[in-house]
Design brief:
alpha/beta; 130 residues; 5-stranded parallel β-sheet; nuclease; metal ion binding; metal-binding; nuclease activity; magnesium; Rossmann fold
Length: 130
Amino acid sequence: MRKIVIDTSVFIDFARAKTGLYPQLFELFRDGICELYVPTVVIFELWAGSSMSKKTIVDETVRMLSKIKRVELDEKIAKKTGEIIRQKQIRGFDAIVAASALELGAEVATQNEKHFRKVKGLKLYQLQGR
């Protein structure tokens, strides 16, 4: 089954404008075509954003996240993240998202593909015809 790790940008675009990849991803998930994952660092990034001061956004985000499996920052992902940063492929929290996907053998769904393109072996989610 296809595995997809969702980056923060996907949730932000949906929360702000009800557009982007999330509706397509959720449809694939609902139809049993993929498993969706969210690294816990993405949850941190979401809650750090100013839009989370709005109850409606919080409620909607909680609802979206309730259906998605969590990826904890364990030792394997931490080491992979360190390698990615040391090799200057990508920095910051995006490195944790990328490492999570690599360890799961998953694709990354993001609205910021340029942030992830340099990561060796990482597959980016592209919606394909069903």
